[in-house]
Amino acid sequence: MIYGAMKLSIGGPLKLAFRPWVEGVENIPAEGPAILASNHLSFSDSFFLPAVLDRKVTFIAKAEYFTTPGIKGRMTAAFFKGVGQLPVDRSGARGAGEAAIKSGIDVLERGELFGIYPEGTRSPDGRLYRGKPGGLARVALATGAPVIPVAMIDTEKIQPPGKVMPKLMRPGIRIGKPMDFSRYQGMEHDRFVLRAVTDEVMYEIMKLSGQEYVDIYATAAKRQLTEAAKAEKEAAKEAAKKEEAAKKEAAAKQAAAAARKQVEGGSVPDGTPDDDERNGAAGAGRADRERSGS
Q1: Which of 145, 166, 194, 294 pairs as cysteine with 133 (C-beta 3.0–4.6 A)?
Q2: What pTM was computed for the model?
């Protein structure tokens, strides 16, 4: 009931404002469990996909969205619950993975749609990254539910990092044909099978999305980008220090050169009396002696 209200209040305006185009919606079963495995470009992915489907889709979200204190925290928790998000505590990597798997199994056992992002996090640069085998494959093999590959198109361009106002444009959604992994039933603890299932799904997502594929995890890519940005910032800071030091040195040299020029030009006394000064001093000495002799 809450999901339906949220879908009307959010999904309706979302579709009206952005007019997302959809291909392959007929691949979503009218009933029964299924896993929607999607690439992840934007925070809005979890809103656009449910907005274009008739059936409810349940995603998982970090527990902080549901436990933040205060009025804003309660409103955020109500919002995420309303749009079908399930809280998962990510304080421990293994615990988080197990919680996500259990949540997915529970959703599918109720005959519903379970949405998951195999990359584990949003793409940092619009490319498609290696899927993590722990969640998607284990849920699929434990439940026997079909996996439906989904490609979100251009959602990252709607609100790029640092932009407050979203850009009104048409994102796209391509939904592939269901994938059956029943041949691996009961092998959800075989890491080679989990890797094979995940890679097969990621290949289908790549074909649907047209993204460049990068064979590393998105979390590692984000870490590399963060470290590179930090190194670049430190290098810029060091360069600025060197430039400032060079300016000070140049200013000091210029001041010294100007001082030498003034001394050489005679405009500034250098501490040595000139001929006029010497002659004046000698004349004064003679006058004193004459007065004293008289």
Answers
A1: 194
A2: 0.75
